[in-house]
Amino acid sequence: MAGHSKWASIKHKKAATDAKRGQLFTKLARAITVAARDGGGDPAANYALAAAIEKAKSFSMPKENIQRAIERGTGGGEAGAIEHVVYEGYGPGGAAVLVDALTDNRNRTGAEMRHTFDRNGGSLGEPGSVAWQFEKKGVVLVDGSRYGEDDVIAAIDAGADDVVEDGDSLKITCEPAVLSDVRAALEESGVEIQSAELTMEPKTTVEVTDPNEARRLMKLIEALDDHDDVDTVHANFDIPAELLEEAAA
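The chain above was modelled as a monomer; its predicted structure follows.
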């Protein structure tokens, strides 16, 4: 799955330096607000909130922004109008695509998701059509050129399930509830984190080796990811790393 994690690394670097940082921070804040609204404002007792905070920290979101987002979620008001909606479909090459959205208008967002899939060579499916191909996990990525498996033993001690070399990254997976513990253990041991987030990990992957299909698939995923209401996009493709670099350029 080197291509899959390579995409995660590319996506993180691109977002961190994106000119639309304001849009990124808005999305991160909205996810924190909804998590706080649904499970309370204490990250120690609300792993979804803890994970949303960890993701925001990965992109250097200021602490005061994070705190304001938590307060919005626990204070009622506008947060009550936001719904979490999952859209499922297929992209070019037969890749399954799962989209987590946070919206105040389900009908509008649904129509726009369908249009985005159709315009980029994909098709929006029915609820449940692809979700069974994924499972929720905490995933931490670190630079595989700087660290080896021995350097991240602290992650296993903190409850991580697995550490694998994946392309140019070390990929550490864990149950959602211990993601914060795993990240904290790594940081305390001096390991620099590339990204840490809750994600829907594919149980199996689909190889996409045709350059045209790879480009069209990446275009679809980027269009979905750029949508204001989209929180995260998950997909089960495995594109060769070199082809992925080219398609994502």
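The chain has a mean pLDDT of 88.
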